[in-house]
Amino acid sequence: MSTSGAGNEGKLGNGTIVTVCLTFVIAMLGMAYAAVPLYEMFCKVTGYGGTTQRVEQASSVILDKKIKVRFDANTAPGLPWSFQPVQREIELRIGETVLVNYRARNDASFETTGQATFNVTPAATGAYFNKVQCFCFTETTLQPGEEMEMPVLFFIDPAIVDAVETKNVHTITLSYTFFPHEKTKPVASASDAGGEASKKL
């Protein structure tokens, strides 16, 4: 009887270990899926990594102190666009709301869609770079040869002059990179599909 009891205890022990391991694996998978949105939320709240802030209204405080903002534009491989800022650099008062534009053109012979990512440098200024309006909030679709001006409405939070890590910053660079969106892939027409089918036959 003692041998049988020991065997049952061993089986129960193994079953418990398997259950614990499975629970651990499931928990880790859940954390992995949650990590990306949580990290994005953390960046948006803190400005970590140069992530800018999104606000609903302009600043009510405007300082006499000025700061320069430079504009950078890039396109990732796979997106056949020409993309650049209309102005390369401006100088504005801290707290002043300013509208600037970027310009994009679809150089392909088919419709393309892009989504922009963004950041600012120095990275510490991200918490004080506030966007009221930006083309980067949604994806952009351009027809063949279409050109579009894309507005960015922003201001620099006056609190930037009080923070130890940013009070001596005189220039900020706002950088965008457009990546191809899934819609970008051209779809074969019905006639093309029929032609391919007849060739195979």
TrEMBL record:
It is found in: Cell inner membrane. It comes from the Bacteria. GO terms for biological process: respiratory chain complex IV assembly. Keywords: Cell inner membrane, Cell membrane, Copper, Membrane, Signal-anchor, Transmembrane, Transmembrane helix. InterPro entries: CtaG/Cox11_dom_sf, Cyt_c_oxidase_assmbl_CtaG. The keyword Transmembrane helix applies. It is a single-pass type II membrane protein. Pfam families: CtaG_Cox11 (PF04442). The chain crosses the membrane at residues 12-36. One of its GO terms (cellular component) is plasma membrane. One of its GO terms (molecular function) is copper ion binding. Residues 1-13 are cytoplasmic. Exerts its effect at some terminal stage of cytochrome c oxidase synthesis, probably by being involved in the insertion of the copper B into subunit I. Belongs to the COX11/CtaG family. This is Cytochrome c oxidase assembly protein CtaG. It comes from Rhizobium subbaraonis. The lineage of its organism: Bacteria, Pseudomonadati, Pseudomonadota, Alphaproteobacteria, Hyphomicrobiales. The gene is ctaG.
